[in-house]
Prior knowledge:
Pathway: Purine metabolism; IMP biosynthesis via de novo pathway; N(1)-(5-phospho-D-ribosyl)glycinamide from 5-phospho-alpha-D-ribose 1-diphosphate: step 2/2. This protein is an alpha+beta fold.
Amino acid sequence: xxxxxxxxxxxxxxxxxxxxxxxxxxxxxxxxxxxxxxxxxxxxxxxxxxxxxxxxxxxxxxxxxxxxxxxxxxxxxxxxxxxxxxxxxxxxxxxxxxxxxxxxxxxxxxxxxxxxxxxxxxxxxxxxxxxxxxxxxxxxxxxxxxxxxxxxxxxxxxxxxxxxxxxxxxxxxxxxxxxxxxxxxxxxxxxxxxxxxxxxxxxxxxxxxxxxxxxxxxxxxxxxxxxxxxxxxxxxxxxxxxxxxxxxxxxxxxxxxxxxxxxxxxxxxxxxxxxxxxxxxxxxxxxxxxxxxxxxxxxxxxxxxxxxxxxxxxxxxxxxxxxxxxxxxxxxxxxxxxxxxxxxxxxxxxxxxxxxxxxxxxxxxxxxxxxxxxxxxxxxxxxxxxxxxxxxxxxxxxxxxxxxxx
Length: 406
């Protein structure tokens, strides 16, 4: 089949690599793609948040399947426009994508579905924000209601910092702090049926030891040797299936990836957040272990045939992804510097481009993901860092404690 993949980041490069390895994928078109993805398929320009432009490209590309990678195109309704052309799409429509596009909507859905999550208040004014901060106390958790590329959440002991973030946002969700380790579980959904992938854990903060501001993610690993044996089953029964049923009951069936961000708290499993797409960088690690042909899996979901697909198959062992970030990230990154070593095996491009002379340069906050695999998390970690050490980028930064002591 001919597959059109929308996006240009590390998540999409990982998806492209897995799709290219699927014998059923005879043509891969990446829009707009990146220099790393160009080695796997044809890269074509497109405004990925313009539903009409993406739908037109899907038609002219004669795509049998369109996969929408990032959240912004999903929230913009790109999947709806493509479906209107009669082309199968892996990715929720704009209404269903509000599960990520609006934290307040997600909380409303969880409440209706009986899904365990943190108590929260939606705030629009200073007075509402102050009251909520006082109600829940420190550590303060303040979330921008809209999309913020993984950087819209502030968790702090400093009330003034928490209030300042709330006032910077048009609308925020302020909620109780959830203790315990966090876990990401990606659930493949076709509107009716659902299948889980391997659980993973990412590292959100810029600094080692979990210090500094939140980022889109500085690294991840899978599987989780310390997790309860029944974790995935519990998440499916208490979180994913009720949420998907609630959305279907509202007439907005969810087709795509329901990203369940979870906390294993002292009071039990609770949802931290939902996203409407694969998490970056967790999916880079997860896909490194997937043996099931990805194109066939996502086509089954896009066409409502997931129940007939069978179980997912996984390689034994573990995978670790370490992110190389640009100087200045997660603030304003320094861009345009030359980048070397990015053609090594296991390297996924996230924020790169070629300059006029053909030199690879860093253009984003997160520049590369270095993925290692091994028989254990420790072995995979060693391989990931061996790859990372081969990357040369002036001012580049990576955490050295990803998946340490697992």
